[in-house]
Design brief:
alpha+beta; five-stranded antiparallel sheet
Length: about 325
């Protein structure tokens, strides 16, 4: 990993081995970041152990809290008695990118493949997908199973990744970061957030074997052993087929019926218990006065989610 708090064009001049013609690699991941809302500081530099992150994790506080809450129950035979040395995987002093990288690395050390880990952590919005029937698609079964165990790390975020086995990129389900990929007939594969990476005079259109772009929640992978470019549906089906998720969902998952609403006579015992403990339940579930007054009340009155903007102090 080569890092520098400098212009990207100066990196090869700073690290002389990047200029040496004897220095050859099979693959390379190049990440450039402009510090938009924080001053550049080394403690906030991305670790680049397995991912490069372009964007931000807007759910980072919830992800941080949940990983801490589960740390006491986390165990894996790969770590044995040293389990506590890697917990909690997320640290307050790290950036959102650093915590994301640490959590992905922890999943890899627990025998998960990198595309599989990103599918678990950064799922697509599969619930409203009408292309396949519910319960029959192994990818949906995968997401249904992990959706009950792992909260999503939502961006907007474009994630470039590599662990020596797979290399590629994934886009979170918001889909607000550009990502394009293409492969040449000689096997060269490029995934980029920008267009025009290759000079069209050197690489004319007839040299392209395939190309595409990542949509919301999509992923693309390169098998570094075979050089194969594996697109979204194929890599997800491969990862979902590793375990019997459909069988596990049938055994371990139960859909609970919604309790009836409180009637005029207040006789429904479940709804009455909710009413009597409403403030405590709201607190336990993370609701604030702002949520209640600005969101819940508006939804109850209008029947739809409210819209408002930050910085609007108009009464």
């Amino acid at each position: 990993v080569y890092k520098g708090m400098l212009k990207s064009s100066a990196l090869p001049a700073y690290y002389r081995d990047l200029q040496d013609p004897r220095y050859e690699v099979q693959y390379a991941l190049w990440h450039r970041r402009f510090s938009t809302n924080t001053m550049p500081r080394w403690p906030l530099a991305q670790p680049f152990r397995v991912i490069g992150h372009n964007g931000e994790i807007n759910t980072i506080q919830g992800n941080y809290n949940w990983t801490h809450a589960r740390s006491s129950a986390f165990e894996h035979p790969n770590f044995g008695y040293r389990m506590q040395e890697v917990l909690p995987p997320c640290r307050a002093e790290n950036s959102d990118s650093g915590n994301l990288d640490s959590y992905v690395e922890l999943m890899l050390r627990c025998n998960r493949e990198l595309p599989e880990s990103l599918m678990i952590m950064v799922p697509e919005a599969y619930q409203e997908d009408k292309n396949t029937a519910p319960g029959r698609d192994p990818v949906k079964e995968f997401y249904e199973y992990w959706g009950a165990l792992q909260e999503p790390w939502d961006g907007p975020a474009l994630l470039a990744y590599c662990d020596g086995e797979y290399m590629g990129a994934a886009l979170d389900r918001n889909g607000l970061r550009p990502a394009r990929y293409f492969q040449l007939h000689d096997g060269t594969t490029v995934v980029s957030s920008e267009a025009g990476i290759l000079d069209s005079d050197i690489y004319p259109a007839d040299q392209f074997r395939s190309k595409g772009r990542l949509g919301p929640g999509k992923i693309v992978a390169i098998d570094l052993h075979t050089g194969e470019l594996i697109e979204n549906d194929t890599i997800k089906t491969k990862m979902a087929a590793k375990k019997p998720y459909a069988d596990w969902n049938k055994v371990f998952r139960e859909d609970l019926r919604s309790p009836g609403f409180l009637g005029a006579d207040h006789t429904n015992p479940v709804a009455k218990a909710v009413e009597d403990n409403l403030i405590k339940l709201e607190f336990d579930l993370g609701y604030t006065i702002e949520d209640t007054e600005m969101v819940v009340e508006s939804m109850a009155i209008t029947g739809k989610e409210p819209t408002f903007c930050m910085g609007n102090d108009k009464p």
